[in-house]
Amino acid sequence: MVAKLFEQLRHDLKSAMLNHEDLRKDTIRLIIAAFKKIEADTGKDVDDDDCLNILLREKKTRQESVEQYRLGGREDLAQRELAEISIIDLYLPVPMSDADVEATVARVMAETEAVTAKDMGKVMAGLGALRGKADMKKVSALVRAKLS
Fold first, then answer.
1. What confidence tier does 1 reach under pLDDT thresholds 50, 70, 90?
2. What is the model's pTM?
3. Which residue has the higher pLDDT, 118 or 77?
4. CATH architecture of the domain with range 98-147
5. Distance CA 123, CA 42 (A)
6. Helices 4-18/22-42 angle, 10° precision
7. Class of the 4-89 domain?
């Protein structure tokens, strides 16, 4: 079974080609190529979890590129990467607000009865559902702050 997100990307690629939207077309092609690489490497179709992981990885790669381009004084390339990030964001889940993240962290900490830094692994395991909806580095920092 092919993931819904993968089918949506293929449909949007056709639309971008018909509308001569080069940046959108190129970005979607790169994402689809990443999906196909995973399929070839694993020998199975991508599911929605795989799609989410691939999109998050592609976004992270572009964010790192933006930093490097800016350090190198190439704002034109940084702007292109930012435009690609905005296209990738269209396919990612809506990010949670900081208040929702804090409430979820507090709930999971209460459920796992976490009180010390040694319990951080249990808390982070319980927060797996936030992947793609919140920056996990910020979540980790929040958990660490609450446990210390």
1. very low
2. 0.74
3. 77
4. Orthogonal Bundle (1.10)
5. 30
6. 150
7. mainly alpha
pLDDT tens, position by position, 29-50 = 999 999 889 889 888 887 877 8
Residue 48 structure tokens: 């929605």
Written as six digits, the tokens of 124 are 């982070």
Tokens representing 138 are: 């910020």
Domain ranges in the chain? 4-89, 98-147
| Amino acid type, 78 | A
Average pLDDT, the chain: 86
Q: Which two tokens stand for residue 62?
A: 């572009």
* Token couple for 125: 């395991």
Residues contacting residue 89 through CB under 8 Å, at least 6 positions apart: 59
Range 120-126 contact pairs with CB under 8 angstroms and sequence separation of 24 or more: 120/144, 120/147, 123/147
- Would you say 69 and 75 are in contact if contact means Cβ atoms under 8 Å apart? yes
